[in-house]
Design brief:
single chain; alpha/beta; Aldehyde Oxidoreductase, domain 3; five-stranded mixed β-sheet; three-stranded antiparallel β-sheet; 15 helices
Length: about 400
């Protein structure tokens, strides 16, 4: 994915994009109805007065403004609830929920359509044919609004809820693993041994959100370079932390051009960073185990989601596309630490959570051979934390028995 495509994708996920697009379509619809009215014969079997169409548009305008404000306030409440009960890192997924954005966009777009239509009727710019076309479009808008209202009623029951948020983060993590399958080589050559080359540093401080691999490959081919990517999406970037190591001759502006292939932002994103999804899930589970919330059931649900995501992630790496780029594979130990260490730390005193975690880690050890060593190491770590935190002898015995590796 190029940088332009990545930035367009980020823009499309913003809360304002769909309402703006629907509003533009609404205004264009009214304009088209006026422009095409000349194609319809002036003498029609029946006519509609301006007052008849205007009354319908007035009802839409007055009611949809209230509905749109109510819907936006519901979204704000859902974001606040999700941030307080789960983690602020999950909020972008709720903001980017396409179904919720579509409903609100229909309300705002229909409101603007009504306003522009009323202005046109008040200015007497529509002929009889134009009013008939405007009336037909208004009926279609009413149908869209009713459908959006029905859909919105169903969405309000789940948006911002803990279970729904866990599901959204799990789906985003699965999607990220499909983008970065297998060992996460991203179509590059596997790095074996210690990397070498001249370091190229970031011009900004933040997190790597995207790497334009096609651009790097093109520059490497043109200038006979071999590039080792040391900062994959999700890595922290700073002027003293190299983005890559380059073997070859770097011209005066080549370092800037190479660094320009990295998109650095203030926060991590889910798109090409599956580890971020695992971290967010672990944060939700860890927060559920805090004394103020004390919800081990949510932590168990998070553990189940983590096990499913890791067990079902794609095995095959993408084909070699960038032969002049090298990247280190994803470390199974990092995946285990991101996923389970926070829950093992904060849930060490809960026998229910620890037993479910140990069972899930055993599943990963059996089903994913490449993660067997890391999973067994995390089992040992979890058992040690649990035995230290638990006071009941029966709980210790149950955990010790569950953590026995055969």
């Amino acid at each position: 994915m190029s940088q332009i495509a990545f930035k367009l994708r980020q823009m499309v996920q913003k809360m304002w994009f769909l309402p703006a697009a629907f509003s533009l379509v609404a205004i264009l619809t009214v304009v088209i109805a006026y422009a095409t009215s000349g194609l319809v014969p002036d003498k029609l079997p029946f006519t509609l007065s301006s007052e008849a169409v205007e009354s319908i548009l007035t009802v839409l305008a007055s009611s949809l403004l209230t509905v749109a404000v109510f819907s936006l306030s519901t979204i704000v409440s859902a974001l606040s609830s999700a941030s307080a009960s789960t983690t602020p890192r999950a909020v972008p997924l709720i903001v980017g929920d396409r179904s919720a954005q579509t409903s609100i966009s229909v309300f705002i777009g229909a409101f603007l359509f009504s306003i522009v239509g009323i202005i046109g009727l008040s200015a007497n710019i529509y002929s009889e044919a134009g009013r008939l076309l405007l009336f037909a479009v208004t009926l279609a808008v009413v149908v869209l609004v009713v459908a959006a209202l029905i859909r919105w009623i169903g969405q309000m029951s789940s948006i911002g809820r803990v279970g729904e948020t866990v599901s959204k983060v799990g789906s985003a993590t699965e999607k990220a693993f499909r983008t970065v399958p297998g060992d996460g080589l991203l179509g590059c050559r596997r790095l074996s041994g210690k990397p070498s080359g001249e370091p190229v540093f970031s011009r900004k401080t933040g997190y790597v959100q995207h790497v334009d691999l096609s651009r790097l490959q093109e520059l490497a081919e043109q200038h006979e370079l071999l590039i080792t990517i040391t900062s994959r999406p999700g890595a922290y970037a700073a002027p003293d932390r190299p983005l890559m190591l380059v073997a070859g001759t770097l011209e005066d502006d080549m370092a800037d051009r190479l660094a320009g292939a990295f998109t650095v932002g203030t926060g991590r994103t889910f798109d090409s960073d599956p580890r971020f999804g695992l971290i967010v899930l672990a944060e939700i589970g860890s927060k559920a185990l805090s004394p103020g919330i004390n919800d081990p059931g949510t932590a168990i649900a998070v553990v189940s989601t983590l096990v499913r995501v890791l067990a079902e992630r794609p095995v095959e790496d993408s084909d070699l596309k960038y032969e002049r780029l090298l990247v280190a594979p994803l470390d199974p130990d990092d995946l285990m630490a991101d996923s389970f260490r926070p829950i093992a730390r904060d849930g060490a005193g809960s026998i229910e959570v620890m037993l479910r975690m140990v069972a899930g880690l055993k599943t990963l050890a059996r089903c994913r051979p490449e993660m067997e060593k890391a999973a067994k190491g995390m089992i040992a770590d979890a058992v040690e934390r649990g035995l230290t935190a638990m006071s009941a002898k029966s709980d210790k015995a149950a955990l010790k028995a569950a953590g026995t590796l055969k």
